[in-house]
Design goal:
Blueprint lengths: L1 E5 L7 E2 L2 E2 L1 H18 L3 E5 L10 H17 L4 E5 L6 H4 L3 H4 L4 E4 L13 E4 L3 E5 L12 H12 L6 E6 L1 E2 L14 E2 L2 E4 L10 E5 L5 E2 L7 E3 L15 E6 L8 E6 L6 E4 L7 H10 L7 E8 L7 H9 L5 E9 L1 H4 L8 H6 L2 H12 L5 H14 L2
Helix pairs in contact: 1-2
């Protein structure tokens, strides 16, 4: 069985108020061309189709048109799309019945109805099985659901066809670089699961949620984040791609290769390595080629504060260029950071994990921030981020 594994499209995402429709259309066109070339048996989109739970009609139409074009590029391909934590699970399934005509499966929730397993175990012709699980908060996810579905698939898989499971979650041991509000226990309000929590019996586990494409350590190259095909923030300084996965039969190791997705408006930080002073940053922006489209962030180190006009000055420098100036990422020099009463810049505050800010506030107020309070805080943050 050959599958195309992707996730975290975040359609409708804007970058510092810049509309990204052109880039998202270019990304989906590249994926369509890959489908036409590769002719996969299954296309898996593992959550976070949209950036918000209430995407505009135009963004939903763009997505719908893309999926239809994928079907036209490979009419025999099974298309499976699960909801992520940025998506609305209920809205995800509104048109699930008419979508089936094009062999498209939209999985947005897990029900308690009799025979619920049939909604999540999808047979791909005579090629294999896909176990499709959307994101749901851990308290709403049936205990042991991964192994339950894997055991049921084993009963049905009398021909020893490949078994692929897809999920949208945080798995311990992953590299979370580029993600805001992440620590070793949680990313984006989703607590880490251990590998053993995901059950046993799959040949490949296709994951969404983490934007950096990677295998999970200790998984024998069976558990993988495909990563996002487009960068969502300037800190995602790695390549962005989709994964092509081929599995000969049940029990065989998957063969995985990646195909890069090119962004017509790449995210560029100046300087490209490290930080510089405000005067040098302005010169770097002036020297950026006028005819190269990009989003620009400036990394600036200051002893005190930036000039009040810094944002306007940078925008003025870039106004006749094809690049789009976005943001000055300012931090204080090490000497300025010393001292008991350190005042954080806006950029430093935004870079802090919410739970670290909560711990600091609790310490200032003389409140014990124990394990129970930490759990309650993470649950509250997860609800806010839905």
């Amino acid at each position: 069985m050959k599958i195309l594994h992707t996730s975290d499209w975040h359609l409708g995402h804007t970058l510092y108020n810049y509309d990204r429709t052109e880039e998202q259309l270019a990304m989906m066109l590249q994926i369509r061309n890959i489908i036409q070339e590769e002719q996969p048996d299954a296309f898996l989109l593992c959550g976070d189709v949209y950036h918000t739970a209430t995407p505009s009609a135009a963004i939903q139409t763009m997505f719908t048109n893309a999926i239809v074009s994928f079907h036209e590029a490979c009419p025999t391909m099974t298309i499976i799309i699960t909801a992520g934590n940025h998506d609305s699970g209920s809205k995800h399934e509104i048109f699930r019945t008419p979508w089936r005509i094009l062999n498209v499966y939209m999985i947005g929730s897990v029900s308690n109805d009799e025979g619920w397993e049939n909604e999540h175990i999808i047979k791909v012709k005579d090629k294999g099985y896909i176990i499709a699980l959307p994101y749901q908060h851990e308290r709403n996810m049936p205990k042991g659901i991964f192994q339950t579905l894997l055991d049921e698939t084993t009963k049905r898989n009398t021909r020893q066809l490949p078994v692929v499971m897809m999920a949208h979650t945080t798995v311990g041991g992953a590299d979370f670089i580029g993600h805001d509000h992440s620590n070793e226990r949680s990313v984006g309000g989703i607590d880490c699961l251990d590998l053993h929590d995901l059950g046993d019996g799959y040949d490949y586990l296709a994951l969404g949620h983490i934007h950096h494409a990677q295998f999970i350590q200790g998984s024998e190259h069976r558990v993988r984040y495909s990563g996002s095909p487009l960068a969502v923030s300037f800190d995602e300084t790695y390549s962005h791609s989709i994964s092509i996965v081929e599995i000969a039969s049940h029990g065989k190791l998957p063969q995985v290769r990646t195909i890069d997705i090119n962004n017509p408006h790449p995210l560029v930080t100046l300087p490209t390595d490290g930080w510089t002073d405000w005067e040098t940053a302005q010169q770097l922006l002036k020297g950026y080629p006028d005819d190269i489209p990009a989003y620009i962030r400036l990394n600036v180190e200051v002893d005190d504060f930036l000039p009040a006009s810094a944002q306007l000055d940078a925008a003025h420098i870039a106004e006749n260029k094809d690049c789009r100036f976005c943001h000055i990422n300012a931090r204080r020099t090490l000497d300025a950071q010393k001292g008991e009463n350190h005042i954080m810049t806006v950029a430093e505050f935004q870079a802090e994990n919410p739970i670290d800010i909560a711990r600091r506030y609790a310490q200032d107020q003389g409140i014990a921030f124990d394990a129970d309070m930490e759990k309650l805080f993470n649950e509250t943050l997860s609800e806010i981020n839905k």
